[in-house]
Design a protein that fits this description.
CATH architecture: Alpha-Beta Barrel
Number of domains: 1
Distance between the termini: 19 Å
Order of helices and strands: EEHEEEEHEE
CATH class: Alpha Beta
Number of strands: 8
Shape: globular
Number of helices: 2
Structural class: alpha+beta
CATH topology: Multidrug-efflux Transporter 1 Regulator Bmrr, Chain A
Oligomer: single chain
Helix content: 10-25%
Largest sheet: 8 strands, antiparallel
């Protein structure tokens, strides 16, 4: 199956601190784990506890530590980009997004449906994924009432 249209970009490394959970798509845990991570992050005001946040603030959802492919377990971290990590506050984790080549997919429209639809279009395709790290960027465009957008980056092998 062919992946949805994407642009290839090479991005530098970045660091994120946030709340992390181990989850899985195949057994359905991600359907509850990911919204629970969002709820905890927002209701506990976790962003306020993250030191050295980049300005303007940017939230990231980071997928890493893949056991195999998109059907295996992986770590999901929801947090904020930081200029330096140091030791994270209690209950938070640090994740390094590596410099690598990514397939870029803009998710536009009603959220979270637009993000879920992009991922559904990626799973099980011939996209040459590395399964090292994938991430979503939630910046000011995410809260745009007329044209919300989230950027999705999927690690791929160099062409």
């Amino acid at each position: 199956m062919e992946a949805p249209p994407y642009t290839t970009v090479r991005l530098p490394a970045r660091t994120v601190i946030g709340i992390e959970r181990r989850t899985c798509n195949a057994d359905g845990r991600s359907v509850t784990d990911i919204p629970a991570c969002w709820k905890e992050f927002l209701t506990t005001n976790a962003a306020a506890r993250i030191p050295h946040r980049i300005i303007p603030p940017v939230m990231y959802a980071v997928y890493s530590g893949y056991a195999s492919d998109w059907t295996g377990e992986y770590s999901y971290l929801l947090g904020c980009g930081v200029v330096k990590a140091g030791t994270p506050p209690k209950g938070l984790a640090v994740r390094q997004i590596p410099a690598q080549t990514y397939a870029y997919f803009p998710a536009r429209g009603r959220m979270p449906d637009a993000v879920v639809n992009i991922w559904a279009g990626i799973w099980g395709t011939d996209l040459p994924r590395t399964y090292t790290c994938d991430f979503e960027v939630y910046d000011s465009r995410f809260t745009d009432k007329k044209k919300p957008q989230v950027d999705i980056y999927v690690g791929i092998r160099d062409p």
